[in-house]
Amino acid sequence: MKIVVTGTRGIPNILGGVETHCEELYPRLVKRGYDITIVRRTCYITDNIRINNYKGIHLKDIYAPRKKSMEAIIHTFLAILYAKKSHADILHIHAIGPSLLVPFARILGLKVVMTHHGPDYDRQKWGRLAKWILRTGERMGAIYANEIIVISNVIKDILYKKYNRSDTHLIFNGVTLPEKSRSTEYLNQLGLTSRKYILGIGRFVEEKGFDLLIEAFSKLDQNQYKLVIAGDADHPSAYSEKLKQMAREQQVILTGFIKGEKLNEIFSNAALFVLPSFHEGLPIALLEAMSYNLDVLVSDIPANRLPELTTNDYFKTGSVSDLKDKLQHKIENITLDRTYDLSSYNWDNIAKQVDAVYQKILNTK
After folding, report:
1. How large a percentage of the chain has pLDDT more than 70?
2. Looking at residue 129, what is its pLDDT?
3. What is the 3-state secondary structure (H, E, C) of 199-268?
4. What is the pLDDT of residues 329-347, one digit of tens each?
5. What is the rounded CA–CA span in Å between residue 197 and residue 222?
6. Given phi > 0 = left and psi -120 to 50 = alpha, else beta, which region is 219?
7. d(CA 222, CA 333)
8. Do the beta carbons of residue 207 and residue 122 sit within 8 Å?
9. Helix, strand or coil for residue 348?
10. What b-and-e string marks burial along 133-163, b requiring 16 or more CB atoms within 10 Å of the CB?
């Protein structure tokens, strides 16, 4: 049974929530007997990942311009043509931007599963036209996709209230319990001490709120903890350059994009994880921090309101003063090796649920 996947930049080791989702999910579906091809965007393929197979997944590289306003739509169009040509049984489209072309895929006779990872039109980086396109993509997916997967109850409610789509499948993002690093080699290179730094992870875009985190951190009454932000911008912007300047001025450590052992070491030795986002679907970075038993402090947006967290884990979204106050309280009352019940986010169970969606669409005339 052949599944073609698009809407992701690609795998492996390409930063992004959708990318991490795909990197974890599809090897498990290969083990369940599916023939999976992930279509990758050429503009993200570096020499170290120029491969055609990853854990049994076929990797097909198709052109995408490195331009944020065009890359997803052009790449998705070409990926749909590839799916048709390769006689895919199912086309699985991730995210609402690429879902703008769900009707095109259906016209070509393809069966389509759409995964809605979040209302991307809420992201600050998009202008008025882009937001309209994203809303239209959500609408096209909601109306024309054969089956829809949503990663949170928030998204499930959006599709029901806006489009009366009541048959969506709620399947959470997942997390793999890690084998924690015992090394401090990378920490030493960065001048860090284990359990003496606060960690943020994500792309350098406005909706991640890292400028607020740096500002709040600079106001803390302390000299024990450093601030580390792991990530960078996909596309350099005025905001990302401003953020880097702020980091230099406040002596915040920026690691750039990191994966593998370096990321493992950074997670394993942090004291506190902070996610100051204005917008999320269901943040994998937060689930990863919880899997490393880190104490957390996150914005109070609906997507971050996980049942495993408490009221002390939230600050008022967008408020530097509240973030500063809650940060001060956290570092004065750090909970090391905090435990969470993560059974709802088990990737093997998630793969089983997606398998059921595939079987449903294939068995529906």
Report:
1. 99
2. 87
3. EEECCCCHHHCHHHHHHHHHCCCCCCCEEEEEECCCCCCHHHHHHHHHHHHCCCEEEECCCHHHHHHHHH
4. 999 999 999 999 999 899 9
5. 12
6. alpha
7. 13
8. yes
9. helix
10. bbbebbbbbbebbbbbbbbbebbbebbeeee
Q: Greatest CA span in the chain, whole angstroms?
A: 65
Neighbours of 108 (CB within 10 A): 14
pLDDT in tens, 165-179: 999 999 999 999 999
| Cβ contacts of 216 within 8 Å, gap of 6 or more | 320, 321, 323, 324, 327
- Measure the CA–CA gap between 240 and 234, rounded to whole angstroms: 10
Neighbours of 129 (CB within 10 A): 9
Report the side by side order of strands in the sheet with 53-54.
Answer: 53-54, 57-62, 35-41, 2-6, 90-94, 112-116, 147-150, 169-170
Q: What DSSP designation does 325 have? A: H
- Taking the C-alpha atoms of residue 99 and residue 285, their distance in angstroms, rounded to an integer, is 24
Comparing CA positions, the residue from 217, 228, 253, 214 lying closest to residue 330 is 217
67, pLDDT greater than 90: no
Which H/E stretch holds residue 79? helix 71-85
How many CB atoms neighbour CB 102 within 10 A? 28
For 18, 25, 217, the CA distances from 170, given in Å and listed in that order, are 16, 15, 36
How far is it, in rounded angstroms, from Cα 283 to Cα 288?
9
Residue 214 structure tokens = 């740096």
Q: Tokens 């930049």 appear where?
A: 9
Span 77-94, average pLDDT? 98
What tokens appear for 310 in the block?
A: 């408490």
pTM: 0.83
Examine the pLDDT at 299 and tell me if it is beyond 90: yes
Contact 11, 38 (CB under 8 A): yes
In this prediction, residue 69 carries a pLDDT of 75
pLDDT at 68 over 80: no
